[in-house]
Write a structure and sequence with these properties.
One of its GO terms (molecular function) is FAD binding. Pfam families: DAO. Its cofactor is FAD. One of its GO terms (biological process) is D-amino acid catabolic process. InterPro entries: D-amino_acid_oxidase_CS, DAO, FAD-dep_OxRdtase. By secondary structure, the protein is α/β, with parallel strands linked by helices. The chain has one domain: NAD(P)-binding Rossmann-like Domain (Rossmann fold). Helix content is about 30%, strand content about 30%. Strands 3, 4, 5, 8, 9, 10, 11, 12 and 13 form a nine-stranded mixed β-sheet that branches. A six-stranded mixed β-sheet has the order 6-2-1-7-15-14, covered by helices on one side. Helix 2 packs across helix 7. The longest helix is centred in the C-terminal third of the chain and has 26 residues.
Length: about 325
């Protein structure tokens, strides 16, 4: 089977890796306008899925999240963990708005520990917080993980081609299966008006002494990564596509994080970054259809619209997308 994957971020690469596992003889090519500057590269990569995250049904959504966690946890347990940028991490979520803010519908029965904070733990940060949770989870450092995934794919014969497509129908005559993992690009390629960009800005600082992540509500976060680099965030600008660094937001983010955890006041800034999250109203789109161009036809599977949870749930939606493709392929063979 000849497979074309469109999109070179975490969704496209993870889909390709899983395809290689399940369809060993498949000839896979990944098309992307850019492999080095995707929104995935900006993500902090912590495995924390919002309770508002949604697939087509609750059961499917839960499966996506569980499958994703198990996928990353298997990497964490392997010899490739440090190369792939996957590690265990633990930390705290504090809030004043509501006790529901520190709960997590998807994670509480999945991660090894998810519990209330103790009275002593509230003293770890500044602020008179009313509610708190401590949990253990996983971290995927995309600046390590994405190059690792690309190399693994290329070593297994997958082709990576930089190319801008004007239509998915361009691929129909040459490919049996097309996986659409284009994120915000699907607005153009699929005319999907439900897709909206949510701009995020964050700061990377050097602070190897911080080993634990901290969230103050959900708009202030401090997340340790590899090599002593912390991610300080953040911002959520709905329907904004401004890729320029905003100096006012930088000041606000740094001030919030330093007030929250004074221990980072001396941390040196390494980099400021901006990314556009591909948010899709209602739910993430993982759907299948048949695409036609003249006398040629192919199976097309959409896998996009993950918002800020692409890194978290890429393995789960990829597995589901491949399942849909295999079912349709078997069905089409049975009709012959």
């Amino acid at each position: 089977m000849k497979v074309a994957i469109v999109g070179g971020g975490i969704i496209g690469l993870t889909t390709a890796l899983q395809l290689k596992r399940e369809l060993r003889n498949a000839e896979i090519t990944i098309f992307a306008t850019d492999f080095d500057n995707t929104v995935s590269h900006v993500a902090a990569g912590i495995f924390r899925v919002s309770s508002s995250y949604s697939g087509p049904t609750e059961e499917i959504t839960r499966n996506w999240i569980r499958d994703s966690y198990e996928y990353y946890d298997d990497i964490r347990k392997s010899y490739e963990a440090s190369f792939a940028g996957v590690t265990a991490i633990s930390g705290y979520l504090f809030a004043n708005s509501s006790p529901e803010t520190v709960k997590n519908y998807w994670l509480e029965d999945l991660v090894p520990i998810y519990r209330r904070t103790t009275d002593e733990e509230f003293q770890l940060v500044n602020g008179n917080w009313k509610y708190g949770s401590f949990f253990k989870t996983l971290l995927t450092e995309c600046k390590l993980h994405l190059p690792w995934a690309r190399k693994k794919l290329q070593d297994n014969g997958t082709k990576l081609i930089k190319k801008k497509l004007n239509s998915l129908t361009e691929l129909v005559s040459d490919w049996d299966l097309i996986m659409n993992c284009t994120g915000l690009g699907a607005r153009f390629l699929c005319n999907d008006r439900r897709l909206v960009s949510i701009r995020g800005q964050l700061i990377k600082v050097k602070a190897p002494w911080v080993k634990t992540f901290f969230y103050g509500e959900l708009d202030t976060y401090i997340i340790p990564g590899f090599n002593g680099i912390l991610t300080l965030g953040g911002s959520r600008n709905f329907d904004s596509e401004n890729m320029k660094i905003c100096p006012y937001e930088l000041v606000a983010i740094r001030q919030r994080c330093e007030n929250f955890l004074p221990a980072i006041k001396t941390a040196e800034i390494v980099k400021n970054e901006v990314g556009l999250r591909p948010h899709r109203e209602n739910n993430v789109r993982v759907e299948i259809e048949q695409i036609v161009n003249g006398y040629s036809k192919a199976i097309l599977v959409h896998n996009y619209g993950h918002g800020g949870y692409g890194v978290c749930t890429a393995p789960g939606t990829a597995k589901y997308a491949i399942k849909l493709a295999k079912e349709m392929h078997k069905s089409s063979i049975a009709k012959l």
